[in-house]
Protein backbone atom coordinates (compact mmCIF):
# COMPACT_ATOMS: atom_id res chain seq x y z
CA UNK A 1 0.00 0.00 0.00
CA UNK A 2 1.64 3.21 -1.22
CA UNK A 3 -0.85 5.68 0.33
CA UNK A 4 -3.58 5.83 2.93
CA UNK A 5 -6.44 8.31 2.68
CA UNK A 6 -7.37 9.99 5.94
CA UNK A 7 -10.68 11.47 7.05
CA UNK A 8 -9.15 14.96 7.40
CA UNK A 9 -5.97 16.76 8.43
CA UNK A 10 -5.24 18.56 11.71
CA UNK A 11 -8.81 19.92 11.71
CA UNK A 12 -12.06 18.67 10.12
CA UNK A 13 -12.07 21.51 7.57
CA UNK A 14 -8.63 20.50 6.23
CA UNK A 15 -9.40 18.15 3.35
CA UNK A 16 -8.25 16.18 1.48
CA UNK A 17 -5.74 14.37 3.68
CA UNK A 18 -3.49 11.36 3.22
CA UNK A 19 -0.14 9.82 4.07
CA UNK A 20 1.89 8.43 1.18
CA UNK A 21 5.35 7.51 -0.06
CA UNK A 22 6.76 9.76 -2.79
CA UNK A 23 9.22 7.13 -4.03
CA UNK A 24 6.46 4.72 -4.98
CA UNK A 25 7.39 2.21 -2.27
CA UNK A 26 4.87 0.75 0.16
CA UNK A 27 4.14 2.48 3.45
CA UNK A 28 6.07 0.79 6.29
CA UNK A 29 2.89 0.40 8.36
CA UNK A 30 -0.20 -1.78 8.47
CA UNK A 31 -3.38 -0.63 10.19
CA UNK A 32 -4.60 -3.67 12.09
CA UNK A 33 -7.64 -1.99 13.64
CA UNK A 34 -9.43 1.36 13.63
CA UNK A 35 -8.95 4.38 11.39
CA UNK A 36 -6.00 6.50 12.58
CA UNK A 37 -6.05 10.19 11.69
CA UNK A 38 -3.49 12.80 10.65
CA UNK A 39 -2.42 13.77 14.19
CA UNK A 40 -2.47 10.11 15.26
CA UNK A 41 0.15 9.34 12.62
CA UNK A 42 2.27 12.36 13.58
CA UNK A 43 2.29 11.11 17.17
CA UNK A 44 2.87 7.51 16.09
CA UNK A 45 5.86 8.17 13.83
CA UNK A 46 7.56 10.58 16.26
CA UNK A 47 6.90 8.24 19.16
CA UNK A 48 8.21 5.21 17.27
CA UNK A 49 11.50 6.97 16.58
CA UNK A 50 11.81 7.85 20.27
CA UNK A 51 11.25 4.33 21.60
CA UNK A 52 13.42 2.76 18.92
CA UNK A 53 16.30 5.02 19.99
CA UNK A 54 15.66 4.41 23.69
CA UNK A 55 15.79 0.66 23.15
CA UNK A 56 19.02 0.98 21.17
CA UNK A 57 20.63 3.27 23.76
CA UNK A 58 19.69 1.27 26.87
CA UNK A 59 19.03 -2.27 25.67
CA UNK A 60 15.69 -2.15 27.52
CA UNK A 61 12.12 -2.21 26.15
CA UNK A 62 10.80 1.33 25.85
CA UNK A 63 7.44 3.09 25.69
CA UNK A 64 6.23 6.62 25.21
CA UNK A 65 2.90 8.37 25.65
CA UNK A 66 2.40 11.14 23.06
CA UNK A 67 -0.02 14.07 23.00
CA UNK A 68 -0.09 16.76 20.31
CA UNK A 69 3.22 15.65 18.78
CA UNK A 70 5.20 15.81 22.03
CA UNK A 71 5.79 13.09 24.62
CA UNK A 72 3.83 13.32 27.86
CA UNK A 73 6.03 10.55 29.20
CA UNK A 74 8.79 8.15 28.13
CA UNK A 75 10.39 5.25 29.98
CA UNK A 76 12.31 1.99 29.80
CA UNK A 77 11.23 -1.34 31.23
CA UNK A 78 12.68 -1.36 34.72
CA UNK A 79 10.68 -3.18 37.43
CA UNK A 80 8.14 -1.15 39.37
CA UNK A 81 8.45 -0.63 43.10
CA UNK A 82 5.35 -1.21 45.22
CA UNK A 83 4.85 2.55 45.48
CA UNK A 84 5.27 3.09 41.75
CA UNK A 85 2.77 0.34 40.96
CA UNK A 86 0.27 2.08 43.23
CA UNK A 87 0.70 5.60 41.87
CA UNK A 88 0.46 4.27 38.29
CA UNK A 89 -2.70 2.33 39.27
CA UNK A 90 -1.37 -1.06 38.13
CA UNK A 91 -0.85 -2.66 41.56
CA UNK A 92 -3.86 -4.93 40.96
CA UNK A 93 -2.29 -6.52 37.84
CA UNK A 94 0.42 -8.58 39.54
CA UNK A 95 3.95 -8.91 38.17
CA UNK A 96 4.22 -7.14 34.81
CA UNK A 97 6.43 -7.73 31.77
CA UNK A 98 9.29 -5.25 31.17
CA UNK A 99 7.37 -3.64 28.28
CA UNK A 100 4.28 -3.24 30.44
CA UNK A 101 6.43 -1.63 33.15
CA UNK A 102 7.79 0.78 30.55
CA UNK A 103 4.30 1.84 29.47
CA UNK A 104 3.02 2.06 33.05
CA UNK A 105 5.86 4.50 33.75
CA UNK A 106 5.40 6.47 30.53
CA UNK A 107 1.66 6.80 31.06
CA UNK A 108 1.81 7.32 34.80
CA UNK A 109 4.46 10.03 35.15
CA UNK A 110 2.07 12.79 34.04
CA UNK A 111 -1.41 11.32 33.95
CA UNK A 112 -3.06 14.68 33.26
CA UNK A 113 -1.04 15.21 30.08
CA UNK A 114 -1.19 11.59 28.91
CA UNK A 115 -5.00 11.38 29.04
CA UNK A 116 -6.10 10.43 25.51
CA UNK A 117 -2.58 9.58 24.40
CA UNK A 118 -1.11 7.81 21.39
CA UNK A 119 1.25 5.04 22.50
CA UNK A 120 4.51 3.86 20.93
CA UNK A 121 6.18 0.60 21.97
CA UNK A 122 9.67 -0.57 21.05
CA UNK A 123 8.83 -4.28 21.26
CA UNK A 124 6.03 -6.65 20.31
CA UNK A 125 3.01 -5.70 22.42
CA UNK A 126 2.23 -8.45 24.92
CA UNK A 127 -0.94 -9.18 26.90
CA UNK A 128 0.32 -7.42 30.05
CA UNK A 129 0.86 -4.19 28.14
CA UNK A 130 -2.45 -4.52 26.28
CA UNK A 131 -4.33 -4.93 29.57
CA UNK A 132 -2.92 -1.64 30.86
CA UNK A 133 -3.75 0.09 27.58
CA UNK A 134 -7.29 -1.26 27.58
CA UNK A 135 -8.16 0.40 30.89
CA UNK A 136 -6.81 3.85 29.95
CA UNK A 137 -8.31 6.59 27.76
CA UNK A 138 -6.12 6.41 24.65
CA UNK A 139 -6.40 7.02 20.91
CA UNK A 140 -4.13 4.26 19.63
CA UNK A 141 -0.86 2.37 19.66
CA UNK A 142 2.02 1.64 17.29
CA UNK A 143 4.41 -1.28 17.75
CA UNK A 144 6.50 -3.65 15.63
CA UNK A 145 4.03 -6.46 16.37
CA UNK A 146 1.33 -7.83 18.68
CA UNK A 147 0.78 -11.22 20.23
CA UNK A 148 -2.54 -12.79 19.33
CA UNK A 149 -3.81 -12.30 22.88
CA UNK A 150 -2.71 -8.64 22.98
CA UNK A 151 -4.36 -7.87 19.65
CA UNK A 152 -7.61 -9.49 20.77
CA UNK A 153 -7.59 -7.37 23.95
CA UNK A 154 -6.91 -4.14 22.03
CA UNK A 155 -9.62 -4.85 19.44
CA UNK A 156 -12.19 -4.83 22.26
CA UNK A 157 -11.31 -1.23 23.14
CA UNK A 158 -13.48 1.70 21.99
CA UNK A 159 -16.25 -0.63 20.84
CA UNK A 160 -13.86 -2.24 18.40
CA UNK A 161 -12.59 1.05 16.93
CA UNK A 162 -9.28 1.44 18.79
CA UNK A 163 -6.39 2.36 16.48
CA UNK A 164 -3.74 -0.36 16.25
CA UNK A 165 -0.79 0.16 13.90
CA UNK A 166 2.02 -2.26 13.13
CA UNK A 167 5.28 -0.77 11.82
CA UNK A 168 8.06 -2.51 9.96
CA UNK A 169 10.93 -2.32 12.46
CA UNK A 170 13.43 -2.70 9.62
CA UNK A 171 12.17 0.37 7.76
CA UNK A 172 14.93 2.92 7.13
CA UNK A 173 13.76 6.43 6.13
CA UNK A 174 15.51 8.59 3.55
CA UNK A 175 18.47 10.61 4.80
CA UNK A 176 16.83 13.87 3.68
CA UNK A 177 13.57 15.09 5.21
CA UNK A 178 11.19 17.44 3.42
CA UNK A 179 8.02 19.27 4.40
CA UNK A 180 5.99 22.09 2.99
CA UNK A 181 4.82 25.25 4.73
CA UNK A 182 2.71 27.84 2.95
CA UNK A 183 3.49 26.22 -0.39
CA UNK A 184 7.24 26.46 0.23
CA UNK A 185 9.41 23.35 0.48
CA UNK A 186 11.78 22.83 3.42
CA UNK A 187 14.55 20.25 3.31
CA UNK A 188 17.08 19.04 5.88
CA UNK A 189 19.14 16.01 6.80
CA UNK A 190 17.52 13.73 9.36
CA UNK A 191 18.74 14.12 12.93
CA UNK A 192 20.63 10.84 13.24
CA UNK A 193 22.67 11.93 16.27
CA UNK A 194 23.55 8.94 18.43
CA UNK A 195 23.05 9.63 22.12
CA UNK A 196 25.39 7.56 24.26
CA UNK A 197 27.88 7.88 27.12
CA UNK A 198 30.43 9.55 24.83
CA UNK A 199 28.08 12.52 24.48
CA UNK A 200 28.21 12.95 28.26
CA UNK A 201 32.01 12.96 28.56
CA UNK A 202 32.67 16.73 28.72
CA UNK A 203 32.05 17.46 32.39
CA UNK A 204 32.51 21.16 33.11
CA UNK A 205 31.65 21.30 36.82
CA UNK A 206 33.76 20.56 39.89
CA UNK A 207 31.69 17.43 40.43
CA UNK A 208 32.64 15.07 37.62
CA UNK A 209 30.93 11.92 38.88
CA UNK A 210 27.88 10.65 36.97
CA UNK A 211 26.91 7.08 37.92
CA UNK A 212 25.66 4.67 35.25
CA UNK A 213 22.06 4.92 36.47
CA UNK A 214 22.18 8.70 35.97
CA UNK A 215 23.72 8.25 32.51
CA UNK A 216 20.69 6.14 31.56
CA UNK A 217 18.38 8.85 32.88
CA UNK A 218 20.29 11.54 30.95
CA UNK A 219 20.04 9.44 27.78
CA UNK A 220 16.29 9.10 28.35
CA UNK A 221 16.01 12.86 28.83
CA UNK A 222 18.02 13.73 25.71
CA UNK A 223 16.33 11.18 23.44
CA UNK A 224 12.95 12.39 24.69
CA UNK A 225 13.97 15.96 23.82
CA UNK A 226 14.86 14.93 20.25
CA UNK A 227 11.14 14.38 19.66
CA UNK A 228 9.67 17.12 21.86
CA UNK A 229 8.48 20.41 20.40
CA UNK A 230 11.11 23.04 21.28
CA UNK A 231 12.03 24.83 23.46
CA UNK A 232 12.06 21.84 25.79
CA UNK A 233 13.50 20.54 29.07
CA UNK A 234 13.14 17.04 30.52
CA UNK A 235 13.58 15.79 34.10
CA UNK A 236 14.26 12.03 34.46
CA UNK A 237 14.74 9.60 37.33
CA UNK A 238 14.70 5.85 37.75
CA UNK A 239 14.47 5.00 34.07
CA UNK A 240 11.72 7.41 33.06
CA UNK A 241 10.91 10.99 32.24
CA UNK A 242 9.16 12.52 35.27
CA UNK A 243 8.58 16.03 33.92
CA UNK A 244 8.62 17.43 30.39
CA UNK A 245 8.34 21.12 29.56
CA UNK A 246 7.59 21.51 25.85
CA UNK A 247 6.99 24.27 23.33
CA UNK A 248 7.78 27.25 25.56
CA UNK A 249 9.34 30.40 24.13
CA UNK A 250 11.52 30.95 27.22
CA UNK A 251 13.84 28.30 28.62
CA UNK A 252 13.09 29.22 32.24
CA UNK A 253 9.42 28.58 31.53
CA UNK A 254 10.39 25.15 30.14
CA UNK A 255 12.33 24.43 33.33
CA UNK A 256 9.52 25.65 35.59
CA UNK A 257 6.92 23.61 33.71
CA UNK A 258 9.01 20.44 33.68
CA UNK A 259 9.99 20.98 37.30
CA UNK A 260 6.39 21.41 38.45
CA UNK A 261 5.46 18.15 36.70
CA UNK A 262 8.39 16.38 38.34
CA UNK A 263 7.27 17.77 41.70
CA UNK A 264 3.74 16.49 41.15
CA UNK A 265 5.14 13.05 40.28
CA UNK A 266 6.96 12.92 43.61
CA UNK A 267 4.12 14.47 45.64
CA UNK A 268 1.85 11.66 44.45
CA UNK A 269 4.13 9.27 46.36
CA UNK A 270 3.64 11.11 49.65
CA UNK A 271 1.58 9.53 52.46
CA UNK A 272 -0.91 12.40 52.21
CA UNK A 273 -1.77 11.40 48.63
CA UNK A 274 -1.27 7.64 48.89
CA UNK A 275 -3.79 7.52 51.75
CA UNK A 276 -6.51 9.70 50.24
CA UNK A 277 -9.87 8.06 51.10
CA UNK A 278 -11.51 8.09 47.67
CA UNK A 279 -15.15 7.12 47.36
CA UNK A 280 -15.79 3.69 45.89
CA UNK A 281 -15.97 3.38 42.10
CA UNK A 282 -14.57 6.86 41.41
CA UNK A 283 -13.68 7.16 37.73
CA UNK A 284 -9.99 7.07 36.87
CA UNK A 285 -10.03 10.52 35.26
CA UNK A 286 -11.90 12.05 38.22
CA UNK A 287 -9.41 10.51 40.64
CA UNK A 288 -6.46 11.90 38.66
CA UNK A 289 -8.01 15.36 38.41
CA UNK A 290 -8.78 15.32 42.13
CA UNK A 291 -5.19 14.45 43.04
CA UNK A 292 -3.89 17.20 40.76
CA UNK A 293 -6.10 19.76 42.47
CA UNK A 294 -5.37 18.44 45.96
CA UNK A 295 -1.60 18.85 45.61
CA UNK A 296 -1.90 22.25 43.88
CA UNK A 297 -2.85 25.76 44.90
CA UNK A 298 -6.54 25.19 44.10
CA UNK A 299 -6.98 22.46 46.70
CA UNK A 300 -10.19 24.05 48.06
CA UNK A 301 -11.87 23.11 44.77
CA UNK A 302 -11.99 19.56 46.11
CA UNK A 303 -11.91 20.24 49.87
CA UNK A 304 -14.69 22.83 50.18
CA UNK A 305 -17.87 21.82 51.98
CA UNK A 306 -20.23 20.24 49.50
CA UNK A 307 -17.36 19.36 47.17
CA UNK A 308 -15.17 16.95 49.12
CA UNK A 309 -18.11 14.58 49.59
CA UNK A 310 -18.12 13.95 45.81
CA UNK A 311 -14.63 12.50 45.91
CA UNK A 312 -13.78 11.30 49.43
CA UNK A 313 -15.32 9.13 52.11
CA UNK A 314 -14.02 11.57 54.69
CA UNK A 315 -12.52 15.03 54.36
CA UNK A 316 -8.71 14.91 54.00
CA UNK A 317 -6.50 17.41 55.78
CA UNK A 318 -5.00 20.21 53.70
CA UNK A 319 -1.59 19.27 52.28
CA UNK A 320 0.17 22.43 53.42
CA UNK A 321 2.87 24.24 51.50
CA UNK A 322 5.34 23.48 54.29
CA UNK A 323 4.49 19.76 54.24
CA UNK A 324 4.87 19.64 50.47
CA UNK A 325 8.23 21.37 50.61
CA UNK A 326 9.45 18.99 53.31
CA UNK A 327 8.46 16.00 51.17
CA UNK A 328 10.00 17.44 48.00
CA UNK A 329 13.27 18.01 49.83
CA UNK A 330 13.61 14.21 49.89
CA UNK A 331 13.68 13.98 46.07
CA UNK A 332 17.30 13.57 45.03
CA UNK A 333 19.54 12.39 42.17
CA UNK A 334 17.25 13.68 39.42
CA UNK A 335 18.71 14.06 35.91
CA UNK A 336 17.90 16.97 33.64
CA UNK A 337 18.36 17.46 29.91
CA UNK A 338 17.87 20.63 27.88
CA UNK A 339 17.56 20.83 24.10
CA UNK A 340 19.57 24.10 24.02
CA UNK A 341 21.89 25.97 26.37
CA UNK A 342 20.79 27.51 29.64
CA UNK A 343 21.24 31.28 29.30
CA UNK A 344 21.06 32.04 33.02
CA UNK A 345 21.70 30.35 36.37
CA UNK A 346 18.02 30.78 37.29
CA UNK A 347 17.28 27.53 35.44
CA UNK A 348 19.73 25.72 37.73
CA UNK A 349 18.20 27.33 40.82
CA UNK A 350 14.77 26.04 39.76
CA UNK A 351 16.17 22.61 38.92
CA UNK A 352 17.75 22.37 42.38
CA UNK A 353 14.30 22.75 43.99
CA UNK A 354 13.27 19.52 42.23
CA UNK A 355 16.27 17.48 43.33
CA UNK A 356 18.37 17.74 40.17
CA UNK A 357 21.91 16.39 40.60
CA UNK A 358 22.95 15.64 36.98
CA UNK A 359 22.58 17.88 33.92
CA UNK A 360 23.25 17.51 30.20
CA UNK A 361 22.95 20.56 27.95
CA UNK A 362 24.74 21.84 24.83
CA UNK A 363 26.60 24.75 26.47
CA UNK A 364 27.66 27.76 24.44
CA UNK A 365 25.96 30.61 26.30
CA UNK A 366 27.88 33.81 26.96
CA UNK A 367 26.87 33.17 30.60
CA UNK A 368 28.14 29.59 30.80
CA UNK A 369 30.36 30.64 33.72
CA UNK A 370 27.32 31.77 35.72
CA UNK A 371 25.49 28.51 34.96
CA UNK A 372 28.55 26.42 35.95
CA UNK A 373 29.03 28.43 39.16
CA UNK A 374 25.40 27.84 40.11
CA UNK A 375 25.84 24.10 39.54
CA UNK A 376 28.97 24.12 41.68
CA UNK A 377 27.06 25.85 44.47
CA UNK A 378 24.81 22.77 44.70
CA UNK A 379 27.50 20.16 43.87
CA UNK A 380 25.75 19.22 40.63
CA UNK A 381 27.54 17.39 37.83
CA UNK A 382 26.94 19.01 34.45
CA UNK A 383 28.20 18.03 31.03
CA UNK A 384 28.23 20.06 27.82
CA UNK A 385 27.15 17.90 24.90
CA UNK A 386 27.94 20.54 22.27
CA UNK A 387 24.82 19.45 20.37
CA UNK A 388 21.48 21.27 20.12
CA UNK A 389 18.34 19.12 19.89
CA UNK A 390 15.64 21.41 18.49
CA UNK A 391 12.58 19.68 17.04
CA UNK A 392 9.81 21.42 15.10
Describe the structure.
By secondary structure, this protein is α/β, with parallel strands linked by helices. A 6-stranded mixed beta sheet has the order 3-8-7-6-4-5. Strands 12-11-13-14-15 form a 5-stranded mixed beta sheet, sandwiched between helices. 35% of the residues lie in helices and 21% in strands. The chain has helices spanning 38-58, 82-87, 98-108, 111-114, 127-135, 148-155, 212-226, 251-267, 271-274, 284-294, 300-303, 321-328, 346-353, 368-377; strands at residues 3-6, 17-20, 29-33, 62-67, 70-76, 117-121, 138-143, 163-167, 176-181, 184-189, 232-237, 240-246, 334-338, 356-361, 381-384. The protein has 3 domains: 3-172, 3-Layer(aba) Sandwich (Cytidine Deaminase, domain 2); 177-267 and 328-384, AICAR transformylase, duplication domain (Cytidine Deaminase, domain 2, 3-Layer(aba) Sandwich), CATH 3.40.140; 271-318, no CATH class. Strand 13 (334-338), helix 13 and strand 14 form a beta-alpha-beta unit. Helix 3 runs parallel beside helix 5, helix 5 runs parallel beside helix 6 (148-155) and helix 8 packs parallel to helix 13 (346-353). The mean pLDDT is 96.
How many strands, which pairing sense, and closed or not: the largest β-sheet? 6 strands, mixed
- Strand % is 15-25%
Low-confidence stretches: none
Number of strands: 15
Helical residues, percent? 25-40%
- Average per-residue pLDDT, rounded, comes to 96
Order of helices and strands, N to C? EEEHEEHHHEHEHEEEHEEHHHHHEHEHE
CATH topology of the largest domain: Cytidine Deaminase, domain 2
The structural domain count equals 3
The chain-level structural class is: alpha/beta
CATH architecture label name of the largest domain: 3-Layer(aba) Sandwich
Radius of gyration, rounded? 21 Å
Amino- and carboxy-terminal Cα gap = 28 Å
Highest CATH level, the class of the largest domain:
Alpha Beta
Question: What is the name of the CATH superfamily of the largest domain?
Answer: AICAR transformylase, duplication domain
Shape: globular
